[in-house]
């Protein structure tokens, strides 16, 4: 795989197909605060982005009325219930197995709170594929760049490919000196991701890492 020693995965929207559940959770929150609902996946993908606090502003929340910290707690409660029915994307187990077979270390780097991430990965049955799970120490989803930088300081010689589904993943990849492929099956639209300085923007993991995919010849 182009000499890569590590593949760093984003989780939500990249491995974990929780787009519908994220929309439902956001609408639960919007309804509770008498704000207009998200009407479609397209509208959601156009609104979503990092930092999450700005996404909440785009949804219409006024932090003088309800602080972001309180809204984050509310959203997590809705999400924990809604996400019980979320699943991996269908091609994830095969892709993870092929990367592991190639002898490449796999990590998850996520803006999800660390304990929540651990529980989700365990329940999905994919924990054995990963040598580490890197998540935040809070539920506010501000940025995972600092976690990535700390990991990179401990692994200065690692040759890294990062795969994610948002512009923030491209920013994190640049910050840690990693190559990056983005997939548009998740939380951001394909057209927006094309503006990122990455190796490729794929519609799925199979397109990104399959035998005929952008990086398939490296597996």
How does this model look, in words?
There is one protein chain. This protein has ten helices and eight strands. With 219 residues, the chain is an alpha/beta fold. The model has no long low-confidence stretch (mean pLDDT 91). The termini are close together. The chain has two domains: 6-17 and 86-218, 3-Layer(aba) Sandwich (Rossmann fold); 19-85. Helix 6 links the parallel strand 4 (105-113) and strand 5 (132-136). The protein has a six-stranded parallel beta sheet, sandwiched between helices. It has a two-stranded antiparallel sheet with strand order 2-3.
Which properties best describe this structure?
219 residues; 2 domains; Rossmann fold; globular; alpha/beta; 8 strands
Low-pLDDT runs of 5+ residues are none
Q: What summary fits the major beta sheet?
A: 6 strands, parallel
The overall average pLDDT, rounded, is 91
- SSE arrangement, N to C: EEHHHHEHEHEHEHEHEH
Number of strands: 8
What is the share of helical residues? 40-55%
